[in-house]
Every structure is written in C-alpha cells, then in structure tokens.
Amino acid sequence: MGSVPEGVGERRGPGPSRRLPVRPAHAALAAVVAVVFAVGAFERRPAMTDDFDRERDAEFKKTWDTRLHISYWEKWGSFERDACQAMVDAFNRSQDEIYVHYVNTSQVDRKSMLAIMGGDPPEVVGLWASNVSPFAEAGALADLGPLMERAGLERSRYTPNYLKLGTYRGRICALPTTPASVALYYNREHFRERAAELRAAGLDPDRPPRTTEEIDRYADVLNEFGQGGEPIRMGFLPTEPGWFNWTWGFYFGGRLFDEKTERITADDPGNVDAFLWTKRYAERYGREKMLQFRSGFGNFDSPQNAFIDGHVSMEMQGVWFSNFIRRHRPHMEFGVAPFPAAPGVPGPVSLVDCDVIAIPAGCRHPEAAWRFVEFSQREGLAIICRLQGKHMPITEPPASFREGHPHLELDVFERVAASPHAFIQPRIRVWREYQREISKAFEHAWNWPVPEGELEGLEGAERQRKVDELCRAEIEKTLVKVRERIQRQYDKRKEREVLRAERTRP
Amino acid sequence: MRRSTGRTLTGYAFIAPWMVALAFFIGYPFLASLYFSACEYPPMMGPLFVGAENYVELARDDVFRQSMLVTITFAVVAIPLGVLLALTLAVMLNSRIRGQSVYRVIYYLPHLVPSVAVAILWMWMFNPNFGILNVVLRPFGTAAAWLLRPFAALDPGLPGWAALAAVVAAFAAWRWLKRRSEDIRAPEAGGLRSAALVAGIVFAAMLVVAAAAWTGPDDIKKLPSPGWLTDANPFPSKLSVAPSWALWALIYMSMWGVGQMAVIYLAKLQDVPVELYEAADLDGANWWQKTRHVTLPMISPVILFNVVMGIIGAFQVFTEPYIMTGGGPEDKTRFVAMYIYDQAFQYQRLGYASAVAWVLFLVIVALTMLALRISRERVYYAAR
Questions:
Q1: Cα A438 vs. chain centroid, distance in angstroms?
Q2: In terms of CATH, what superfamily is A183-348+426-494?
Q3: Is A138 in the B-facing interface, judged by CB distances under 8 Å?
Q4: The CATH number of the domain where B347 resides is what?
Q5: Distance (Å, rounded) from C-alpha A166 to C-alpha A155?
Q6: pLDDT digits (tens, 9 = 90+) for A389-412
Q7: FRET pair for B234, CA 20 to 30 Å: which of A120, B25, B216, B339?
Q8: Alpha-carbon gap, residue B128 to A217, rounded angstroms
Q9: Is A288 within 8 Å of B222 when comparing Cβ atoms?
Q10: Per-residue pLDDT for chain B (384 aa), expressed as one digit of tens each?
Q11: Which residue of B3, B45, B225 is in closest CB contact with A138?
C-alpha cells in the first residue's frame, strides 16, 4: 500500500545511453529564466526621441535628432493643459538646442516623489505650492536662487506672496506659474430681480456686500423658499463650494499659525468668530434643509454648479471660476468683488495660492531644465496665464497681457493678491494634517445639533443669544482640540528633524 | 535516491518563481514594514530609527481610535447581518423553483461589478435629494415617522416597546405553531427555509421595534429623507456608539455583495445528506431541531469560513468609503485602511503608517484566532 506502481514516473526508453543530461522541464525553466534576464538586460530603454509625432512635431523635424530632449511633468488637463502645451511649444520654437516634452501627469506630486526617490526624475516638474515644503525639506528640489541671480531674474518682479509660496527656509525651490486668489462672485441677475426688496432693506442692489454683516443682510433678501420652507435659492451658503472652510478665520482677523512663536493658533478668537458666523447659517435656515439642498448641486465643472445654475447667489471662488461660467453659461451676468471681511478687519483679505515649476534634484540635465524654467518665467507666464484665464504672479505684467484677455474682472484678483492682508497657507510640515483637522472642525461645528433642552422656554433674541453661547462653547472646544493635536505633531516633527540632523552630521 | 532528489529539485524549480516573488514582494515588505514602524520615515528622506515612539503616539491618537471604532462597528454590524442575509438568500436559492439558476446568477452578479463602479452607483442612490433610495423611502419614511412619532412622544422605551415586542412574539409563535402542525415530508427543502423566513421576519420586526424605542424626534424627522453619506449623527441618536447615518449607508451597501457568500452557503447546503434529515424525521425532530442539530452543524465550517473572511474583509474596507465619503463626515467613515493610506501617502509618514498597519495586522490575527477558538467546539468537520 502506498508504494508507487512500477513504471510510474520512470522514463521508458531504449537505455541509459540515450538519456538527456538535463530533463526537459529543467531545460524549459532555465530557458524561460534566461529569456527573462536577457530581455531585462538588453532591452533598449525607450528614448524621448521615439516620441516624434508627424503632425505636432513637423516643424521640428530637421533639428529633432540634434536637440537635447527633456521632459516636463505637469498636472493640468483640458484647456489648462493646452495652455501649458502652448508655453512648451513657444519654448521649443524659440531655440533649436532643446526640445521639451510635455507629459500630462495625474497625481504629479506622488509620481514625482517616486521618480526622485528612484533616481530618475523628469527635468522639470509642475507641483502645487503645498508640495514645496515637504519636497524642499527632503532636498528633492534644486535651489533656483543662484540660477535666478545668474540669469538676472529679479526677485522683486514677483508679487511677494507668490514668491514666498515657492520659498523654503530662505531658498527659492520653485517659481510660480499660474497664480490664484479668491473673491466674491455674485449673480447680478438675482440682485436686479430683488432690487426693490434690497432697497427696502436699506441695501444697494447695484453693488455687492462689503462686510460679512452685509452678506447676511443681502443673503436674507435674496433667499427663496418653497411652500414647505425648503430652500429654492440661497443668497449665500458658507459650505459652498466647501474648499475654503479653513480660510474663514482670516476674514475675521484670525490666524492659523504664529511663525515667531511657532505656535498653532487654531482657536484664535478670529477663527472662533468665523465658525460661529457660518454656524448661524446652519441654525437660521436648518442644518437638515441645507444638507438636502446642497445634495442637489452638480459638480463644480458642470452646468449644475450651484452658482452657475442659480441655486446660490453669492459664492467665494477663485480666479479660475470665470472660465467655467463662460463654458457652461456664457451669457450669465455676474460680478466679482473682494470677499468682505468682518467689520473692523482691514482688507481686502484673500487666500493666495499658486502652481509652481521646479527642477527635481538629481535630474540629468539641470542646465537645460533651467533654460526652460527661465523661459517659463520671462515669456511663458503671459502665455499660460492668459490661456488659463488668470492674472500673472508678477507686479508689472506686460501691457499686452490684458489685451483680449478672457477674464473681465482680472483687476480684482490682482488687487486682492497684492493686498498686505492677503494670506498664504502656513508653510509647515504638518499643514496637510492641519488643513484636514480644521476642515473637520468646521464640519463638526456646522453639523453640531444645539441641545433643544437648553433652549426650552426661550424665544426671540434671548433664544438666539443662548444658541450663540452654546455654539461658541462647542466651537471653542473643538478648535482647542485641533490646536492641541496639531501642536503635538508639530513639536514631534521638529524634535525628529533635530534628531535627524544630529545623526546625519558628519 | 538520485531520482527522488531530482524529483524534489524539479518540484522546487517549478515553485521557485512563486517562492522568489513571495519572498521579494511580500516577505521583504512584510519584514521591512516592521522595521519601518519603529522609524520616522518621510519617503524622500529615508528612515530614522525612533524606537517605540510611533506606537506610543498611536496610543494617544484619537483619529486612529476613531478609525478603529468605525472599523469595529462596521464589522460588528455588517458581518452578522451579512451572514444572516446570505444564509437566508442561500436557503431561498436552494428551493426548487422555476428559473432557479437565473436567480443564482442575479444574486451573484453584484459581486462581479468593480468596487469603484459600485461606489459611484451607490453615491447616486444615496443622494438625499434625488437618489432612488430616498425617493422610494419617502412615503414609507413619512408613514414610519407618523407611526413612530407617538412612541417618541410617549417615552418610547415603555408602551411602544412592549406592544411591538408582543406583536412580534405573537407573530413568531403563530408561524411556529402553524409550521409545526404541518406535515413535514420534505425535510431537505423545508425546515431551514421556514426557520429563516420566521427569523428574518422576527429580525426585521425587532429592528423596527428597536428603531421605535431608540429614535428621538431628530431621527423621526430624518426618516422620510435621511442625509445618508453626509450625515455624521448616530442612528439611533440616543445611542452615541451607534453607527452614523453615513456608516449605516456603507453597511447597507455592503449587503449588496453578499451573493458570493450565499453561493458558498448554497454549495454546502446542497451537500447536506438527505439521510440525516430522514433520520431526524424518524426521531420525531421538528424543523427547528433539524435546523439546529442537522443543518447548522453540517454547514458550520462554511459559516466559520465566511465569518473569518468577513472579519478580514471588514478590516480592509477602503475603496468604497474613499470614493464615496473620503472618510467624512467628521471621520465617521474613516476606516483604519484609509488612515494608513492617509498617513503614508497624504502626510508622507511611512513609519507611522507601518505602525498602524502592524496594529491592524495584530488585531486581525487576534480576532481570527478568537473566531477559530470559539468555533473549535462549534464547527463540525465530517472528515474528523
């Protein structure tokens, strides 16, 4: 039992003399392994020169093989991609030594990070400003300061906040490409339609609100509700579009980080006031109703966008927004103004952000990369910013820049970006965590149900006062938690940075 | 001797590619992550050994605690519900009806749809304003709200609960007596189906009762049109540890994929020997006794398998909440797997992410071992 029957597993044949030295199975396996290694070892690395497109590159055919080919990874798609491509084309035409390949790259930050770690980065990369600190801290970006100096590219030509976004600990690690500032978009059609009511309320229908208090009053008149009290149109909704919830505090004089003391200031009184201001909308018009109302809005880039289709009359949005209004509702009558700050807070206040261009450390052709980056700053900015419908990140744009520019309210965005009260995101290592926590705190404040038991027997102003008091306490508690958590993380990272520096010191 | 060595070598040669891949792509990362969990490791800067600091930080991390709570709540609610639903489904699919194979295919189909497509589809279905779920629910929710309102107003813990419990008990007893009085001649098709039906009805009724007992005015207001993925408040609101509406939505959605589990149950159900039911009949066993002493023991290895797979699956939930809620609202759907992803790729803390992953791994191992231990005396293997 259990023994193998005779003959099974044996090879029948005339005799041992004809037996092969290696079994066929072994030979087959060895052959497969050999082929795999051979392919790996001798496979030709795909070259950028292979990427010749007969139509696109026809004009470069003559110099194609003599040029140095470098790659530029960028994040944009759609018409914004075309703008970048136009800048790249202009560079490729401007000389005959370098050819830049524009590579449209999703999740460009993560892919660049992996490419840098793997020692094979692109020559030029387009990142977000929030990537500058983590990349620069790891030494992953080339210092552009000396190159700028050599090329005579003055720092003073830039709007200070935009240059600051690409600077890490005094080193310029990235330069701005497309800038962004935000402002109040308002629907002129709605203002006109409710002109009489606005006047009756002591408001001017021909201008937008100038303080947060005025926003409340304008919104109150512009609101429209159905028979069951369900909102049909909201004059203003702080949760729309929902991208800037962490910025509200700045419009009330708040700050998120104190650079001098290196303290997280999430519970700054200005931030508390701002969250309370937004919370009043939830309480005044009903959290559930607002939630239902918002769920009917379409995507940002769609005709069902809440502002574009008229569900919301006033909204904080960036310079880019007019591109999308034009695309989905070309004849919409809208206006743009600096977003109002709270009474007594100096303005105009605006978030300033931008996309940046940088040279990854360890790239193969840094000189060629710099020539392209320099071109992007001298001539490229006008091309890319115009085609993307944005302003330029420099203080004195060329006179021709405004001619035929598609954005009619560009001066508002230039003005708020240059304002001394404009702000940028804190450039700290834990910013992403911080941003998420502060946005979560906003969500919590907005959704927090005021305990009904505490309001029993209260009416009118007294009830409102009590609601405010309860909400303020909850908001303060939530923001204190955020401050403690993020401060702990900030301190820990700093401690480890010191430890790392000590260990790596020769 | 030489021949056996040759055969051994051939065997190893054949499994070598897989072994090499296992060692390089699973073994090495597995061990490396253990080392990295004791490091501060921003991807572009290399690891810096910090000892047990990441684990100490983890113990104080309230977002991690929240994500663990979400994951465990999901597992505790979704696994038993899934097992029960799959079992009920399997029993139904096991019955001899026309077009049986079509139904089997239909129930299995959702499992074949890619999870990203499922997530996007359900996002539309959960839309509070025009999602099909709320459109269908609206009249029922309004009716339920109308029915439940008196209970909520009258301190629902007392008369409402008692009345509903009495109705459910009476109904269950009626079903049981009716079934018992019938001549059960086809045990292989009968007992469990009836049991599952009654259990399902009782369970559904108990859910209604529980909802009535636990809902407050806020919940009742929401019933006609819940906010689903956007609502962070617990349901029932009186129970603070209850899943949020958003998590309920994900639990509900996960039931859509029980077809695979049902197919496994079905295979095993069809494997239960008819003789056992015949023997039970001869002994005078009723449907419940047959279910309890024949069917359940016979399919117990499969129940164990599904529970273990359910535990592992629950701790790996990522795609659906990542696409549908991004962890929100207020971290109420942030599963541990998402937290690991955030730490590693959003915040570039590979060391800390590794520490979280190791804690998760140990929790899964512990729970699986617990399930195996509990099942040691409860699972019947015919071959033993």
A1: 16
A2: Periplasmic binding protein-like II (3.40.190.10)
A3: yes
A4: 1.10.3720.10
A5: 12
A6: 999 999 999 988 988 888 878 899
A7: B339
A8: 29
A9: yes
A10: 567 888 888 888 888 889 999 999 999 999 999 999 999 998 888 899 999 999 999 999 999 999 999 999 999 999 999 999 999 888 888 877 788 788 888 888 888 889 899 999 999 999 888 888 888 888 877 777 677 666 555 444 556 666 666 776 676 666 666 666 554 444 444 554 565 566 566 666 656 656 655 656 667 777 777 888 988 888 887 778 889 999 999 999 999 888 889 989 988 988 889 899 899 999 998 888 888 888 888 999 899 889 989 988 999 999 999 999 999 899 999 999 999 999 998 888 999 999 999 999 999 999 989 988 888 877 777 666
A11: B45
| Alpha carbon of B24: minimum distance to chain A alpha carbons (Å) | 16
User: Is there a cis peptide before residue A122, judged by omega within 30 degrees of 0?
Assistant: no
Distance from CA of B348 to the nearest CA of A (A): 9
Chain A positions in Cβ-Cβ contact with residue B329 (cut-off 8 Å): 443, 447
Least Cα distance to B338 among B116, B74, B82, B68 occurs for: B68
| Chain B: closest CA distance from residue A230 (Å) | 11
Exposure of B114 in the CB half-sphere (CA atoms within 13 A): 4
Question: What pTM value is reported for the model?
Answer: 0.83
Domain range for residue B199?
Answer: 56-376
The closest CB to that of B331, out of A114, A116, A440, belongs to A440
List the single best residue of B41, B229, B330 to mutate versus A (max A Cβ within 10 A).
B330
d(CA B351, CA B46): 10
The ipTM value here is: 0.83
The matching CATH number, chosen from 3.40.50.720, 3.30.470.20, 3.40.190.10, 3.90.180.10, for A50-173+353-418 is: 3.40.190.10
Dihedral over alpha carbons A100, A103, A107, A113 (to 10 degrees): -50
Tokens of B52: 């047990």
CA angle A43, A49, A51 (to 5 degrees): 95
Question: Across the interface, which of A288, A295, A492 has its CB nearest the CB of B127?
Answer: A295
Burial A430-461 (b: 16+ CB within 10 A, else e): bbbbbbbbbbbbbbbbbbbebeeeeeeeeeee
**Residue B298 identity:** M
Q: Is the CB of B328 less than 8 angstroms away from the CB of A443?
A: yes
Looking at the structure of chain B, the number of domains it has is 1
pLDDT of residue B215: 59
